[in-house]
Fold this sequence. Notes:
mainly alpha, two-stranded parallel sheet
Amino acid sequence: MITEISSSLRVGSDSQQLLPQVASHGLPVPTCRPVVNDKPLGGSRKRFFDVCLASMALLALLPLFILVAIAVKASDRGPVFFRHRRVGTSGTAFDCLKFRTMRPDSGKLLEMHLQTDAQAQAEFHATRKLKNDPRITVIGSYLRKSSLDELPQLLNIITGEMSIVGPRPVVTDELALYGSDARHYYATRPGLTGAWQVSGRNDVSYEERVRLDRDYVENWSFATDLQIIARTIPAVFMSRGSY
């Protein structure tokens, strides 16, 4: 079943245009090169936990998965899924999967919006997000607030590109904001949830996000992962910082 779902993924146009546009605004390159790490944070024990939990979650949520896919497709007849190149452990690039929440022409919309709105441009440069984003569809807004758009990342976890808990996956240019702390990001698989997710998400400054990721890696334990998973449930229901 997982293989069938994976083979049906289609790429949305917005996923291929965002990174070049972000780079075009003159962001600096990362200051810390990745160090090859054959054993990401937690080793085989964390990996075993990830595969078991993600597989059970995917099977349990499969009916919801299908309903969301139908809703996205029915909203504007565009692609159901999109994948966006993100940075994984040791700096390896991977395609991060999501339900599509943006209009098919989102790349052009973003470029036009940032060119005509200085405040939005400053907000996007600081947080990589926009509270009032013209690219988001009606169904996409709900999916983002409920975090259901991230459900396909269970497949990323099963294939070993992500973990249940860890820093949220970033694009290459964002690592410039990590500075020397990028080495902590490289040391683990990006997470479906993490310290940033349960601490306010987009209401938290990027500097604080980096600190949370650094502290998570430096003080990792299974108990910490379980605590973050438990805190994720109310965080998702309250939708604080989700947009």
